[in-house]
Amino acid sequence: MKTYYDCIPCFIRQALEAARFTTPDETVQELVLREVLYAVGKMDLKKSPPVMGQHIHRIVRKFSGSNDPYKKVKDHFNKYALKLYPALKEMVKKSPNQFETAALIATAGNIIDFGVNTKLDQSVIDKAIENALSEQIVGSIKKLHKAVSSSKKILYLGDNTGEIVFDRLFIEQLPADKVIFAVRGSPIINDATMSDAVDAGITDLVRVIDNGSDAPGTVLEECSDIFRQSFWAADIIIAKGQGNYETLSNENKNIFFLLKAKCPVIAEHIGCNIGDIVVSQATDLQLKKNKPNS
Fold it and tell me: What CATH class has 71-284?
């Protein structure tokens, strides 16, 4: 997916929110904004939005002096999700369709996204989980289930901290010996890294690798050889979140995207409404791949 004109104000908003989140120093905030504005002026709009997101947060880390400025909030939402985990696991266990219920909970967990909203409240997560089982789905969980059942190698691309605890519920419905779970190679926003996968208990279930990159998505040319080998060897890829969708929606690969549509550009690109739960292959969506910027 390329970058659309409507993404540009969002880049500036994200930069300002990130700067304010990491430091109260207005001088530093101004430095971040000025450098981001300069970078946006030179960016290649043919690249996906997470490429600029990567650059923005490199700038934020540089001026904040912290390699992981979202560390506290990441730990907070991992701990909060782990508190919810036992009750949600029981909900899945009692469900007549455990695969579908776990997939919906995992996808609803994609609401935990500090690239979109740095003021996320726990009540928003509770509501998203509560509504997950009754909301209309864009796509087909049955098709995903069929693809999983016939696959020998499954690559599951994680997204955010906290969210990966809900991913754990879904991974428990998958054949563990066939699954590789992937996280980011280093800190970027509140995206999950290896230490988060350990905290969430995912490393106890399946093999976990990192992708070798600090982009808030999966920019394949920047990923490690080990990750790319796993990517191309997989029969099916389960890709969580908007960042993975933005970077991989044009790839010629059997990818199922699981996300909450939280952005108007993403919603229009997919052909759904903001807030919708999406469980679908890109080939089944009404993508505007060839629509020019307007």
Answer: alpha beta
